[in-house]
Write a structure and sequence with these properties.
mainly alpha, two-stranded antiparallel sheet, 19 helices, 2 strands, 75% helix, binds tryptophan
Length: 449
């Protein structure tokens, strides 16, 4: 069943756009700026980049190697590469993590779609700061509207997935990703030319290490995993669609660069504007919904910029949600022997139901706490700071210690066609540095040491 359905990306450009589409998402435009804001700006950025270069790239490359070697999804790959072992239980982690991420993803994406609507209809005109805040709070706590947007977003994601790998995922990514890149550039240039915008750039690039504690370092690591889409076998599944003649390390490099660039550009589009209008950069998850609309409200042509900004985030969210949902759909297709259409329908329904709980945790379910966090905060914390690092540790351990070194080299070098000069360094990273770092950061961040 699986072999018969195994599809591939049509072109290298399409493959890179789909991979970058998975990586570039709400993590880059909604989450990165606000956690960077909370944890002191520049200092956080430096730690984050160190993790991307030294750990993120290697874990990503490892997922690429495993996926293309095994030619299977996150479950099947371990059955092929380590037959007769229990490694494929890793898939349980993938399913859990994917469902958790997709649920809170839908909540935020639903909000962004509503904000496009608000800007297009110019609903914010002349509002005072209090009105912006109450409009946001009333909207997110409403028991119906945000749920409908969230369900709509799940359905939209499903609509792309039904088209399959080439005609659905690849085609949509090839259109949306270049557009997204141009939009974030334009918005960045616009923000930097605002009076006083330079203070925002200083905030983003001049490090203040006094705000960096163990928690901030864990957040930087968890976010590097989240933003690069690694740790859960999702890129592993996408990599199984990559042609055997492509150079995997090149592709991993390009995806890491594209992802980090969009995060930094989003910071450049946001902080100068926030500072220029004397707003607070440490607003948290509400930064783009509370602070930015006020900023747009004060700019000339604000409704246009606001619409463009929220279109940008919605596109970013869509291509990432597709990658998450594709993994679930692939599982349902295999495990329940369903056709793509039926499998997608089942998945959309399950995701929409779980997403409803996360969405309602801002309203009627706000009293429900898990370890003292709201349902939404718990999902976000649990997925990024625990499931992803643990998953990344597994991936490294498996590739570094259980697979033959010669097999790894064979796959990454396309049977010796490319010279991979950094291979020994890479191997050292996934054997020792990455697992050990992840482990310590994890227990430190959880307050265990
Ligand atoms: N990387 C995406 C973002 O930055 C989110 C995402 C998509 C993801 N697929 C993933 C995170 C797989 C972890 C694993 O928003």
């Amino acid at each position: 069943m699986e072999e018969k359905n195994r599809s591939t990306f049509g072109t290298k450009f399409g493959a890179v756009m789909a991979l970058a589409g998975s990586a570039v998402g709400l993590g880059n435009i909604w989450k990165f700026p606000y956690i960077c804001g909370i944890h002191g700006g520049g200092a956080f950025l430096i730690v984050y980049m160190i993790f991307v270069v030294f750990i993120g790239f290697s874990v990503m490359l490892t997922e690429f190697i495993l996926g293309r070697r095994g030619q299977k999804n996150a479950l099947g790959v371990f059955k092929v590469l380590a037959p007769g072992t229990k490694w494929h239980y890793f898939a349980a982690l993938t399913i859990l993590g994917t469902l958790v991420i997709l649920s809170f993803y839908g909540t935020i994406a639903g909000w962004t779609i509503n904000y496009i609507n608000l800007f297009i209809t110019n609903s914010f005109k002349g509002d005072s700061p209090e009105q912006y805040v109450s409009a946001f709070k009333n909207f997110v706590s409403d028991p119906v509207e945000p749920v409908l947007w969230q369900v709509g977003f799940a359905a939209l994601t499903g609509a792309v997935i039904v088209g399959g790998v080439k005609k659905g995922i690849e085609r949509v990514s090839k259109i949306l990703m270049p557009f997204l890149f141009i939009l974030v550039l334009i918005l960045g240039i616009r923000a930097c030319t605002l009076p006083g915008g330079v203070n925002g750039l200083k905030f983003l690039f001049v490090p203040d290490f006094s705000k960096l504690d163990g928690y901030a370092v864990l957040a930087a690591l968890g976010h590097a995993f989240f933003s690069l889409s690694i740790g859960m076998g999702i890129l592993l599944t996408y990599a199984s669609y990559i042609d055997k003649k492509e150079n995997l390390s090149n592709m991993a490099f390009q995806v890491c660069v594209a992802d980090t660039m969009v995060a930094v550009l989003a910071g450049i589009a946001i902080f100068p504007a926030v500072f220029s209008f004397g707003m607070n950069p440490t607003e948290g998850p509400g930064l783009i919904f509370l602070t930015l609309p006020q900023v747009f409200g004060k700019m000339s042509l604000g409704a246009l910029w606001g619409t463009l900004f929220f279109v940008l985030i919605t596109f970013a969210a869509l291509t990432s949600a597709i990658s998450l949902m594709e993994v679930l759909v692939a599982f349902v297709m295999e495990e329940m022997h369903m056709e793509r259409k039926a499998a997608t329908a089942v998945t959309v329904i399950i995701v929409a139901i779980i997403g409803t709980f996360t969405t309602l945790s801002f309203g009627p379910l706000s009293g429900v706490k898990i370890f003292g966090m709201s349902i939404f905060d718990f999902c976000d914390y649990f997925a990024s700071n625990i499931i992803l690092p643990v998953g990344g540790m597994f991936v490294c351990y498996f590739a570094g210690w259980k697979m033959k070194k010669s097999d790894l080299y064979d796959e990454v070098s396309n049977s010796g066609k490319f010279k991979i000069v950094f291979f020994e360094v890479y191997l050292f990273v996934i054997r020792y540095i990455a697992p050990v770092c992840i482990f310590f950061i994890l227990i430190k961040g959880l307050g265990l040491i």
